[in-house]
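Shipment paperwork, digital attachment
Item: protein structure file
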Amino acid sequence: MNANTVLARGSGLGNLLRATPDSTPQGPGWLNRLRSEAASCAAQLGLPTKRDEEWRYTDLAPLLNYSFESVTSSPLLALADIERFIIPEAATSRLVFVDGVFAPAFSSLDNLPAGLRVTRLAEAWSSHEMIVHAHLARHVNFQHDVFAALNTRSFSDGALILIGKDQRYPVPVHLLFVTTAHDSPVVISPRCLVIAEPGSECTLIEDSVSLGDSVYFNNMVTEIAVAENAEVTHIKLQREASSAFHIAHSGVTLARNGRYHSNTVTLGARLSRFNLRVTQTGEGAECTVEGLALIAGQQLADTHSTIVHTQPRGTSRQLHKCIVDGAAHAVFNGKVVVQQNAQLTDAAQSSRNLLLSARARVDTKPQLEIFADDVKCAHGATVGQLDPEEVFYLKSRGLDELAARNLLTYAFAAEVIAKIAVPSVVERLRYVVLEQIQHTS
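Attachment content:
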């Protein structure tokens, strides 16, 4: 079998786990060896179940009900089909993939400044082989995660962003991953690698969207290496189809005085899981992680984050919010680890959750693991409904019940959305959130 193995119903994912990479070389020798190792890991690890602590709240059974195939063909699209997803601020720095395949007609990379390289991974094997070899599969550990292993084994293309030393690029880079409607379920394995060299700065928008409501499995991996005194802002937008499955990993490594800012907005997919791991390997590293999940109906949105402080004077701030309506289920498991050498660490983590119906459910588990004695760390979690007194106050000012509830719900979400550094993205998300809140109320 090759990487295009069909996933049979019921045991389809099992077939994928046992598959081996295509025997036809797809890159340098080290890459093919990496794929073979990932294939072995996937087969050995097997699929997680609710008996596994990291998956106890997330049942993958719905994923096993479909027979997934790799994409063999996609409909011919026009620019008008994706125009609503184009971000004006990234007009000259956009890389588009349709069903996992690079779409040069919709990409815009002709006027990139010196010092910024945005290209396909499939082209980077020859042009940037040494630096890709040094970082690919180094920041997301596929040896212990079956879905990361499956992506490593199966991905055929992806994006490479390389920001040169002391280059500061104010315009965001937009990676747009478009999935079209298919008659049968398909699996897609996007891959992203971001390397910020010393003193550089860049903003990345990782955007997953759909052009139709069909069943598909989007299995993504993004790796980000932030060198000394460099800074990366990472905006992850998940707007998949309502019948889709979305499992994503982001692995980030911060060198001395490196800075990482994350904004994640989860709106779509029947079942989604986002695993974020940030490791501060250098002294004085900083990260801020902001997340919002807005779900309804039968959706399940699971966020697992781990922030690891290994060196002194590190700082981390995390705020994750969930708005849950209908019979939807949100999960947040956030862990901050302060290792023994990471003295003078300053870390704070907050999980805030809003339930809009009696059937909505949230499982939240913020955690601290502290092995140093001179630190400042705090965490907390809240789960509740809209405050009746606040609703009453707005009604006394002329709003009806529905308008008052919608306004308070939007204000709860707006705290996260407003911190996104791209104005057009903020404006569009405001409309999307307002529309979704009104639709579910």
